[in-house]
């Protein structure tokens, strides 16, 4: 009886964790698109900077004030040699995600972000000369094919937004690859990751945001008809961006790797559906097929990685096969997974 209750509670907790993760992720994406499109706040650097500030403050409160997670101590030297380079790539990733949201629909942007597994494998193969089993390469075929089909049939295609999203995929892959070497020896959770990286990211982005967008943002502030409500929406998106990172920690500890992978791809589908219901961006039938093929490929890729991770000790393992559930995740969620 007790085992049955424990199983039921575990299943309910996993469902609740996934739903709140979906909720924060989709809400942040939709709010960012709303900010750029409906509030006419066309300043992605400033929006990203607000998100970093909110995340830094939120992580400090969660760890230092509320003691929700113990602080992982990092040597001061390692903060600059290891954390700073990761923060720089992290910053590029988030900024490009917001830049792409300004120019292309959420559906297209989310589909392109699903290209990240392919860019990660290709980068490791080309630059680091790592070997990958044939099953990994096979799992990339539907991902690449789906992206090509979606791009060719996208009715709201914008070359600048497309390039920003694609380079964002490369930044996400680079971040994941660098994490394996730069953060070796530190077992970061999502909250400690934000605690250390968000202040660096804010410092990196603050000056470019002021120089490139400062005057435009000030002019928007004085001319927008509903300035108070608009500012509340922008700040709320920043707070929810931090909550999104916190929700990842909860969902990791409530699900297994396969469930997380499937839920992540379903989350993309939910985001695409809700964004279409709100913004009504045109989607052709072939474009929808491309999205389905891409997400199916991502699910297959995650399944292959999981099966390879279950190989018996001593069995050759591909470099990208995760050793634990935590390795299946980027150290910082693509707020993209936020952007």
Automatic annotation (TrEMBL):
Chief subcellular location: membrane
Membrane-protein topology: Multi-pass membrane protein
Top-level taxon: Eukaryota
Gene3D superfamilies referenced in this protein's UniProt entry, alphabetically: 1.10.3730.20
Pfam (any one): TPT
GO biological process: nucleotide-sugar transmembrane transport
GO cellular component: membrane
InterPro entries: EmrE-like, Sugar_P_trans_dom, TPT_transporter
Keywords carried by this UniProt record: Membrane, Transmembrane, Transmembrane helix, Transport
Protein family membership: Belongs to the TPT transporter family. TPT (TC 2.A.7.9) subfamily.
Protein name: Sugar phosphate transporter domain-containing protein
């Amino acid at each position: 009886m007790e085992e049955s209750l424990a199983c039921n509670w575990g299943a309910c907790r996993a469902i609740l964790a996934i739903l709140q993760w979906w909720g924060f992720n989709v809400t942040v994406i939709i709010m960012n698109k709303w900010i750029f499109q409906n509030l006419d706040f066309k300043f992605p650097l400033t929006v990203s900077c607000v998100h970093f500030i909110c995340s830094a403050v939120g992580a400090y409160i969660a760890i230092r004030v509320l003691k929700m997670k113990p602080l992982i101590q990092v040597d001061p030297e390692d903060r600059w040699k290891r954390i700073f380079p990761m923060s720089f790539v992290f910053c590029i990733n988030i900024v490009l995600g917001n830049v792409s949201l300004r120019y292309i629909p959420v559906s297209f942007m989310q589909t392109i972000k699903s290209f990240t597994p392919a860019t990660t494998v290709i980068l490791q193969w080309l630059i680091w000369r790592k070997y990958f089993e044939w099953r990994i390469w096979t799992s990339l075929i539907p991902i690449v094919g789906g992206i090509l089909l979606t791009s060719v049939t996208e009715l709201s295609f914008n070359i600048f937004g497309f390039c920003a999203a694609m380079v964002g995929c490369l930044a996400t892959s680079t971040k994941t690859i660098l994490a394996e070497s730069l953060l070796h020896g530190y077992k970061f959770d999502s909250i400690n990751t934000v605690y250390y990286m968000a202040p660096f990211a804010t410092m990196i982005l603050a000056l470019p945001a002021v120089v490139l967008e400062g005057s435009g943002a000030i002019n928007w502030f004085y001319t927008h008809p509903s300035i108070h409500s608009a500012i509340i929406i922008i700040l709320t998106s920043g707070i929810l961006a931090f909550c999104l990172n916190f929700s990842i920690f909860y969902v990791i500890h409530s699900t297994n790797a396969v469930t997380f992978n499937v839920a992540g791809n379903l989350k993309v589908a939910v985001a695409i559906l809700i964004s279409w219901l709100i913004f009504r961006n045109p989607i052709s039938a072939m474009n929808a097929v491309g999205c389905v093929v891409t997400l199916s490929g991502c699910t297959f890729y995650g399944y292959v990685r999981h099966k390879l991770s279950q190989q018996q000790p001593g069995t050759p393992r591909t470099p990208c096969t995760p050793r634990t559930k935590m390795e299946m995740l980027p150290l910082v969620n693509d707020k993209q997974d936020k952007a």
